[in-house]
Fold this sequence. Notes:
Two copies of one chain form a homodimer.
Chain A: H1 3-8, E1 25-30, H2 34-46, E2 50-57, H3 60-68, E3 75-78, H4 79-83, E4 93-96, H5 103-112, E5 116-119, H6 127-139, E6 144-146, H7 154-164, E7 171-181, H8 182-185, H9 196-199, H10 203-219, E8 225-231, E9 244-251, E10 255-262, E11 264-275, E12 278-282, E13 294-298, E14 301-305, H11 312-326, H12 334-353, E15 357-358
Helix pairs in contact in A: 2-11, 5-6, 6-12, 7-10, 10-12
Amino acid sequence: MDIETLADGFDRRDWQEVEATDDPVRFAMIGVGWWTREQAMPAVANAELCETTVLVSGDSEKAEAVAADSETVEHAITYDEFHDGEASDAYDAVYVVTPNALHLPFVETAAELGKAILCEKPMEATVERAERMVEVVDEHDATLMIAYRMQTEPAVRRAKEFIDDGLIGEPVFVNGNMTEPILELVPDPDQWRLDGELSGGCAVMDIGLYPLNTARFLLDADPERVRGTVASVDEAFDDVPDEHGAFQLDFPGHVYAVCTASQNAHMASHIEVLGTEGRVRVEPAFYPWDDRALTIERGDTSFDVSFEQIDQMEEEFEYFSHCLLTGEEPHPDGEHGLTDIRAIKAVYEASETGETVEL
Amino acid sequence: MDIETLADGFDRRDWQEVEATDDPVRFAMIGVGWWTREQAMPAVANAELCETTVLVSGDSEKAEAVAADSETVEHAITYDEFHDGEASDAYDAVYVVTPNALHLPFVETAAELGKAILCEKPMEATVERAERMVEVVDEHDATLMIAYRMQTEPAVRRAKEFIDDGLIGEPVFVNGNMTEPILELVPDPDQWRLDGELSGGCAVMDIGLYPLNTARFLLDADPERVRGTVASVDEAFDDVPDEHGAFQLDFPGHVYAVCTASQNAHMASHIEVLGTEGRVRVEPAFYPWDDRALTIERGDTSFDVSFEQIDQMEEEFEYFSHCLLTGEEPHPDGEHGLTDIRAIKAVYEASETGETVEL
């Protein structure tokens, strides 16, 4: 790859054909927590191809207050009202961002109502419920995308382009980490992420899936088996198995990924692929508020690549809306998300049994 | 830790009391391959407290030629002559740097002759032979140090000082890698590193032990159990199980280390400890020809620390010689080295059985 291509040739939106519309995709936000208010809604407001028209919340007052601050929101309804089909003429798609174990019923209702679905990752709290989600979507021939924002993140897409172009030779290892002090970020000991029933798991489930899924995306492959250990040490994590987790994924062709994740550690995130001829590293990688940076090494030469930072959520909503407007099938789909749930649950099983778990 | 201490307070040789001597430790180099000629002998020549006086080789002509180029070497003898005690008045200590599976007999003879021993890592090719080495040394009350040059490397010692001072809080994860294209570095398909009998293992044994041992040094702890996978794909590695290897070490207190090593990949090396409050990373870390660099992160602040590069082998020989001159017991000893051999062999067992192996 020449420097000109490196600088000019990258098209962060190689999927884009339509850049404006008079008929934007109208979203119902299901769940109106801080992520919806501070990340998703501003992203949709900035995007060209979509808008937020409906808020669905367990807390009517909160939803009304947020709606009052928005120029596009027409309805603020309750979860029950959503399931009753209220205001269903006012939105084309839903963004499901409730606690993990509550995703399925909203996806079911949306599919029954004929709405397209963007569902946050992990897609559900158990393998069974994730499988059921895939079935429901199939039964209704609905459109489901799992919201892996790394797959539309330019730093990661560039890294993948370098790998696909053979710049690092054949991949040998992936090394990934995501760690944060969750109780400093969200200072609430009763938050759902620490509730095993609602979350389905903590460090590995909530953030370990970033290195896991990004490894899959960069390698364009799925893991064959996993091994690892998880542990909860601090009593705040008594209800979940994994305050911390470390795991290894065996990919086809003897490519190994080693990953770490913690909800009670210094905030850091990276993903790296090391190959026979070089390596590519994105660090910071996964937090939307950190400027992403990319380093490529080949032989004795190393490049630090910096570039315009984009809003990861805007990129993701724009891509999903673009698919709906053009009739393209969006990726990653439910089957793709299900593979992660199976791998994550296999990490917990591997930790309990001490054995390698085949996928 | 204040910046003044960071800049002025580090004493890379906190062990040093004696800086010069009229009676340097005289070394017999056992094995006269490129490492001895290009790394060990120049380091000893530059050091203040030791000198090379004897060369022991399987190849008399090579040894004679190397001896002729040296100002201090008095004798070039064969392996058999060494075992017969020839020239034993001309050296005080031996540096054993033969293929792994040949270390034991030289250590045995040196111990019988009352010589101090600096033995390259891994100390031997099997657990049994490593155990026997520890016994032999005990039987003769000999002095044995295993040549882990990372433990006298200033970048690593600084990293340890930061960790010990609590700068990164409590350690949570260690992340380490060492990879190289061995057939480009040593373009000989018949080299001993690819011979399972002589080496006892390839990627994990030869270079995986760098992240393994440096993790132990930085944490001041030994692993309790291991899991992992190794594989040989390229036919050049048919005689060893591990062209590539990935493994996880569980340290006490649920501290997990994830490590990768390959003898057929892009050259790279790093070690990082991530804690509850920050992290410390040495990269490059393990190759003597790469300038080592240290990064410390605490909260939102990151420091890149650069400093004078030293000759790792000179540092190690000087430390060992200093111990002999002052009557201090050098570290790391044979028991310390044996822990690595057990852990490495457990990685191979874990890969074969798919199970976690207790240490």
